[in-house]
Design a protein that fits this description.
Distance between the termini: 38 Å
Radius of gyration: 21 Å
Strand content: under 5%
Order of helices and strands: HHHHEEEHHHHHHHHHH
Helix content: 55-70%
Number of helices: 14
Structural class: mainly alpha
Strand order of the largest sheet: 1-2-3
Length: 372
């Protein structure tokens, strides 16, 4: 008996990247099962919710992929207005967790609006630069409107306070400006201005944020206090060696020596159990995901699609880069999770939205090739 043909909407999905995404989520599931409190592994409280959320958000990403990229351009300003309203409501009514008022309780769900602003700001900036004449890119008019757009959001996020999310948005914005074609001299001027402003910016940080920066520069200064996170993370990574201690045999996470092994420091827990080889496999999967995202951007015919694709890919890249640098002691601890691997609904939702939007652009690209 002949097998029934695969329905066209399913066959048309970019399965190569979907398998990469599924593999990353599966790695997160295994790690979250392992680091459950009590040792020995358990589905609750991390692994099972992680799997359920991933299934729901994967369906959302596939749903987003069915829309035309032009639709997201048209809705960008509406999304921006809605996101700003949510950020204001977060400051007024949000729940406090980890010392920050970053979450909104909406009945049975809890969301972090600052996370959702990341793809929204990418779409808004991509739309802005897509409509800007090339001759204007070298002028001041290419910079100040973007600053006006992102500054209110960054201010509201810093007031929570959430330095990690604000930093990621700034980095993505600067990178997107570069991709849009702004001349290098403007970035050099910006770097000089940033260097001059660093002492002022440091003085405006909250005490615990200043402590994180100082400890990053010298974690051995207080290994049992403020430097504990970085110190234990590097111990966990180093103790894994080449092939790791073995699944469910990690001592740093199961012994609760490693802080936040299910969120910020999950890569350290993975490296302890699976070693350098396991860590490199995970990094290779992220590389393949980012390579696909940049190919989607480069293959796009429209300027909005190219800029949006690059910005969405860069958003995922900065998640990965900041988290890995953080757990290896190369950056301050700023609370950035590892995409699709760490426990947490809002960050996973944001990344899956980025992937869904990239899939929509990829679908448009393939449609353009068939028409050519």
């Amino acid at each position: 008996m002949a097998l029934a043909p695969i329905p066209k909407p399913i066959a048309d999905l970019p399965w190569r990247v979907l398998w990469i995404v599924i593999a990353l989520a599966a790695a997160g599931f295994l790690a979250l099962y392992s680091v459950a409190p009590g040792g020995g592994g358990a589905l609750m409280p991390y692994a099972l919710p992680h799997a359920v959320r991933f299934g729901v958000f994967l369906a959302l990403a596939i749903g987003l992929s069915r829309f035309r990229p032009a639709t997201f351009s048209e809705l960008a300003w509406l999304g921006y207005a809605g996101g700003m309203v949510l950020l204001v409501l977060t400051l007024l009514l949000g729940a406090i967790g980890g010392g920050a008022r970053s979450w909104l309780e909406l009945g049975i769900i809890r969301i972090q609006p600052s996370e959702l602003m990341k793809p929204v700001l990418v779409l808004v900036l991509a739309r802005f630069y897509a409509h800007m004449p090339p001759r204007e890119l070298s002028r001041w008019a290419a910079i100040w409107p973007a600053g006006v757009l992102i500054s209110p959001a960054i201010l509201l996020i810093l007031l929570q306070p959430d330095l990690g999310t604000a930093s990621l948005i700034v980095l993505t914005t600067i990178a997107l400006m570069f991709v849009a074609g702004l001349p290098l001299r403007l970035f050099i001027g910006g770097l000089v201005a940033t260097a001059i402003a660093i002492p002022v910016g440091f003085s405006l940080l909250l005490p615990h944020q200043q402590e994180r920066v100082l400890i990053f520069l010298n974690p051995e200064q207080d290994p049992l206090g403020a430097g504990y996170h970085i110190t234990q993370s590097m111990i966990a990574i180093g103790s894994g060696g080449l092939f790791g201690r073995g699944y469910l045999n990690g001592t740093q996470a199961s012994g609760r020596f490693l802080p936040a092994p299910h969120t910020d420091f999950i890569f350290a827990a993975i490296a302890e159990e699976w070693g350098l080889v396991g860590g490199l496999v995970l990094i290779a999967l992220f590389f393949l995901l980012l390579r696909w995202g940049m190919k989607v951007s480069l293959d796009a015919k429209g300027r909005f699609e190219r800029l949006a694709g690059a910005g969405l890919t860069l958003t995922i890249f900065f998640y990965i880069a900041i988290n890995l640098m953080m757990v290896m002691g190369l950056a301050p601890v700023v609370g950035i999770p590892l995409p699709l691997v760490s426990y947490g609904g809002s960050a996973m939702l944001t990344v899956m939205i980025c992937i869904g939007l990239l899939m929509a652009i990829d679908r448009q690209n393939r449609r353009d090739v068939r028409r050519a």
